[in-house]
Design a protein that fits this description.
By secondary structure, the protein is mainly beta. The chain contains 1 helix and 15 strands. About 40% of the residues are buried. The C terminus is likely disordered. The structure holds calcium ion.
Length: about 250
């Protein structure tokens, strides 16, 4: 069945033009066939994020909070931070991480450089994002996943099962066209604008954790890709009445 999906498509140059048009439609909101998943509230009712363990709004592009690595094959590097002018997500504040949906087969990541030790209770991770990956609505050819490491980056585990609110993985990546992540559940197709995902980190209590975002693409056709902003790891608790705002613990290396 190889190549069948492309039978009705134009050749490469026209496809690139289509990708640009798709990006413009996406960015202008015209292509939004439905609403995105609403951004979850950070904490349960009656609680607030009283301790911030990690927070990055991406404005400080010299933070050294993120590192980009190519896993392979073909040396494709999808990620940019700071993004080039064409990779900005106008729904966000000025900066975001951007992972391009490349038109060649590849697998690359952008990872937190700092580890965060997860306290015993009520710890969550949330990030804002928007994405458009190549898909025909049924077959998802390109996509992205979120992973974590509890051993200083030696090994990484998929974090999709930790998502409890907001946008969750939407499908399985097609495995017929050389996507290195073929067969895995992922963020696929279209987020239909800005959304957010929230992860419950209770099961990781006591561990020193890093997260990374990973894109896998197949051998042809790209799209706008993945825009990620406002990554935070925080602890929720009831705020005592009459007290001043608790001091945030900022991320430290
Ligand atoms: Ca593709």
């Amino acid at each position: 069945m190889g190549g069948a999906r492309h039978a009705g498509y134009f050749a490469g140059a026209a496809a690139a033009t289509l990708a640009v048009l798709a990006a413009l439609l996406f960015l202008s909101g015209i292509a939004s066939a439905r609403a995105s998943d609403p951004t979850p509230t950070l904490c349960p009712a009656g609680q607030t994020p009283t301790v911030t363990l990690f927070a990055d709004d991406m404005k400080n592009t010299t933070s050294r909070n993120w590192t980009i690595d190519v896993i392979g094959p073909g040396g494709v590097k999808h990620w940019y931070y700071p993004p080039p002018a064409g990779g900005l997500w106008p729904h966000s504040r000025p900066m975001s991480l951007w992972g391009r949906d490349d038109h060649t087969a590849g697998d690359s990541v952008i990872a937190m450089t700092r580890r965060v030790t997860i306290p015993p209770a009520n710890v969550r991770m949330q990030f804002s994002h928007a994405y458009v990956f190549e898909s025909d609505g049924v077959h998802h050819f390109d996509g992205g996943v979120v992973e974590y490491s509890n051993d200083a980056g030696m090994s990484w585990l998929d974090a999709g099962h930790l998502i409890t609110a907001g946008a969750a993985y939407g499908g399985t990546l097609d495995s017929h066209f050389a996507n290195p992540l073929g067969g895995r559940s992922a963020f696929v197709n279209d987020s239909f604008g800005r959304t957010a995902s929230q992860l419950d980190l209770s099961s990781l209590a006591g561990q020193a954790i890093q997260f990374r975002f990973r894109i896998g693409t197949d051998e042809t056709f790209g799209n706008s890709g993945w825009f990620i902003d406002d990554v935070r790891i925080y602890q929720c608790s009831e705020r005592a009445r009459g007290r001043s705002t608790p001091r945030d613990v900022d991320s430290r290396g």
